[in-house]
Amino acid sequence: MKNKEIAALFYxxxxxxEIKGEVAFKVLAYRKAASILEDLxxxxxxxxxEEKLQTVPxxxxxxxxxxxxxxxxxxxxxxxxxxxxxxxxLLELLEVRNLGAKTVQLAHKELGVRNLEDxxxxxxxxxxxxxxxxxxxxxxxxxxxxxxYEKAQERVPIYVALTLxxxxxxxxxxAPGIKRLSAAGSLRRMKxxxxxxxxxxxxxxxxxxxxxxxxxxxxxxxxxxxxTKGSVVMASEAGERQVDLRIVDDSEFGAALQxxxxxxxxxxxxxxxxxxxGLKISEYxxxxxxxxxxxxxxxxxxxxxxxxxxxxEMREDRGExxxxxxxxxxxxxxxxxxxxxxxxxxxxxxxxxxxxxLADLAHGLGYSYLAVCDHSQAAKYAGxxxxxxxxxxxxEITALxxxxxxxxxxxxxxxxxxxxxxxxLPDELLAELDVVVAxxxxxxxxxxxxxxxKAMDNPYLDIIGHPSGRLISGREGYDVDLEAVLKGxxxxxxxxxxxxxxxxxxxxxxxxKKSKDLGVSISLGTDTHSSGGLQMMRFGVGIxxxxxxxKNDILNCLSLGQFKKKMN
Length: 568
Ligand code: DGT
Ligand code: CA
Ligand code: CA
Ligand code: ZN
Known about the structure:
Layout: H1 3-19, H2 24-39, H3 44-49, H4 61-73, H5 77-83, H6 88-92, H7 101-111, H8 116-124, H9 135-153, E1 156-157, H10 158-172, E2 178-183, H11 185-188, E3 193-194, E4 197-203, H12 206-214, E5 219-225, E6 229-236, E7 239-248, H13 253-261, H14 264-276, E8 280-282, E9 285-288, E10 291-294, H15 298-304, H16 320-325, E11 340-344, H17 355-364, E12 369-375, H18 387-403, E13 408-416, H19 427-430, E14 435-439, H20 448-457, E15 463-464, H21 482-492, E16 495-499, H22 509-518, E17 522-525, H23 537-546, H24 560-567
Parallel strand pairs: 4-7, 11-12, 12-13, 13-14, 14-15, 15-16, 16-17
Antiparallel strand pairs: 1-3, 2-4, 5-6, 6-7, 8-9, 9-10
Helix pairs in contact: 1-2, 1-5, 13-15, 20-21, 21-22
Bound molecules: 2'-deoxyguanosine-5'-triphosphate, calcium ion (2 copies) and zinc ion.
């Protein structure tokens, strides 16, 4: 179907005409035609063949002629005329709030503005506010619009996106006539950062579902409100985010979910495969000629191509399709396979939760163990434990364990790796602990690789904490040769951490894959300091799944007994 393709052309024409200062009703006519096409249940090409275009309410002879022209020739003269002389980057400016086509036109004509950078420049140097009819106040508002536009274009950590999406999903359960509902896009694939948020739903009355969506109290702006697609801006922890909702018929839900989950590269590979089999795959289903052979469920869509249902985290075209065809798709760790958390701070250092509080939380998550890994004394800023305090903490943990059934607290530390690569606690104390995580917290640029390797020489070290030191939101991380650290870990039988705090997710999926190939064990720890933080485990598991780690690659998939044995 070319419906959407042609709708996009009409939208562009409307924008261009607006910038050129065309009268409002002409602009509106194109927008309206575009939205009608988007929502049209029938194939526009079929309608044109039967010369029935003009029977569609809202499509007059002028618009019908342009559609026919495009279908016949692949071109539309009106589109070319409307866009001539207008750079694409100028059209994009229309997405900035508080900036109308009239102002864009003025800025373009009078000051030669062609893109966002130009616009920012004429705001900074005052030439925009000097234009007739502009004034400081309006320019100020435009500047605010630019800031929120730029903010909304940035990728956000998965945690921010997922929190917002889950809030929307919970709300949408009550939408009128809604049948199925799911996150899609990079969010469903658990990428460490997410661009826009894609949500898919099925139901009969798209318009009222989208109206319901647009009335969510968190919506700050409505970008589009149709019968098959709604697009809004919502407030989130990281500023404004765009959330897209698509509504499809329930019989197409599987095909649409597969399509909009992506990734694009995975989809392109599938499309090629389908073609080779004489099939066609799209967001509407899998087709043999005009006959639809799959579409209701994702499983059925994949099965139609002779493929298994891929976990969303694997859909990146990194060899998953080829392996599946050979029946060798590896089994990856499940979210429920985690038996404990191996990096947790308590109120003995800079955490906020007591030891018994942590045990309760771990119990609530169905864990069988949780390793208390407070900082060591070099981490003064974090109230790091002296050997004496650590000994007292170990006693308290033992007492607690004796009192309760179910979850076991493990004694542990997140000991600092010092400037010379030694550890910030005496060996005889390290020897008594269940779990020794060792991390670098200072001297990020100083001999990091050598220090980590030296630290791993210590027989009591179990795990290197957050091995790259990066923060997704900003900090670049250590100056470290991770390949060398990986090889060292293999040689010395040490594990590396996948720190599951959303802003770390460190090791990243690239090095996790390498660890797996080398046979280096990975330890998942949330590094939590708060009561909510234990929930971050799922981000670690998500990234582990993206790196194709299996249960056997992960320390904390072991039972308590197996784990203790391995640590000895
Ligand atoms: P993001 O938003 O940048 O974090 O990444 P995605 O993967 O969510 O990408 P997005 O939002 O642009 O599109 C959502 C999904 O729609 C994408 O994962 C796959 C599908 N999709 C988008 N564009 C195309 C395309 O041109 N071809 C195919 N086959 N699929 C596409
Ligand atoms: Ca997306
Ligand atoms: Ca999207
Ligand atoms: Zn740390």
